[in-house]
Design a protein that fits this description.
The protein is α/β, with parallel strands linked by helices and 387 residues long. It folds into 2 domains: 219 residues, 3-Layer(aba) Sandwich (Rossmann fold), CATH 3.40.50.300; 151 residues, P-loop containing nucleotide triphosphate hydrolases (Rossmann fold), CATH 3.40.50. 40% of the residues lie in helices and 17% in strands. The chain has 15 helices and 14 strands. The protein has a 7-stranded parallel β-sheet, sandwiched between helices. The protein has a 7-stranded parallel β-sheet with strand order 10-11-9-12-13-8-14, sandwiched between helices. The longest helix has 18 residues. It is globular, with a radius of gyration of 21 Å. The relative contact order is 0.12.
Length: 387
Amino acid sequence: MTEKDKKKISTFRDFQLDKSILESLDAMGFNEPTPIQEKGIPIILQNKDLIGCAQTGTGKTAAFLLPITQNILKDKDNGKGGKINTLIIVPTRELAVQIDQQLQGLSYFTGISSLAVYGGGDGMSWDQQRNAFERGADIIVATPGRLIAHLQMGYLDFSELKHLVLDEADRMLDMGFYGDILKIVKELPEKRQTLLFSATMPREIRKLATKLLNNPDEINLAVAKPAEGILQAIYKVEDGLKTKLIKELLKEKDLQRVLIFASTKSAVKSLARELKSEELSVAAIHSDLKQKEREQVLLNFKSASTSILVATDIVSRGIDIDNIDLVINYHVPMDAEDYVHRVGRTARAKSTGVAITFVNRKDSRNLMKIERLIGSKIFEIKVPEGI
């Protein structure tokens, strides 16, 4: 695709994707590519390495899944394939499931196989993962720890791997996966396409990219800034009054989905109990839950059978729901980037939403870091009388 062609892109059909991929996109109601898709898909189709820096909710998952799916179909048409073609490494099981689900939709008419590989399941899930590895699923979406556990068993065959994707790379490094990533990459063919996606681009990510990528193209889109459709506001309120304020904000409001972030498991559990006592439809999600319990909680929230979800940051980058009306930060996050990911759960897919943050006297410095990062002051709302 030439530079002249790139400027003409207005629909996914302009990428000259396989008919089966276009059928899937039509079925999902996708027509116009987002900026990261418009810029990234042509580069990936040319088998170039890529660093993509883009905020959450911009469509970066489809930006790499679509061209990779196209390239896999080309290999199959040429009689190639049969072993693992693509490895996508992600920081959390929630993100692994999210990407696998989106992949199933985008590849519905293609016959391409995929598998999400993550820990926390039972022995049956391990056996299912092993069987899929041995059969040769086209695309593997995996968390580092569980993938290394399978690698150590000796039955993984990456000899025909063509594509490596590192998604949410900054989060993986925050979680201490730098060494695990290097350990995994040692088992992969040197001749491959490597794609690295990150919401932020600190020095450690640059260092990792230098080690793993070969003369990459780079895309930088709206680094670490919330989507334009998010109305952001703060309430200056001390901890003892926060729960009362939330009850007031939610009272008699017709909100289909509300996502509340708290920084600790104990705060999540406590707040969920308080809201349940008001006969609100609420659930909590945190690392103490078993994997199946977490999946069910997210499924209930996605289907709107639960309207309020209280969560730790475990889901700030791993929940793929387009219609969240309100995000509340019960605590100001320590890292400014985490604020962006939290509020990015609303106003996805060009919609609009509201993000409210509770700020106590100790939070002033963290609030300043957030405002410096996003490049603007956050509007303050007066706490209602009687709170």
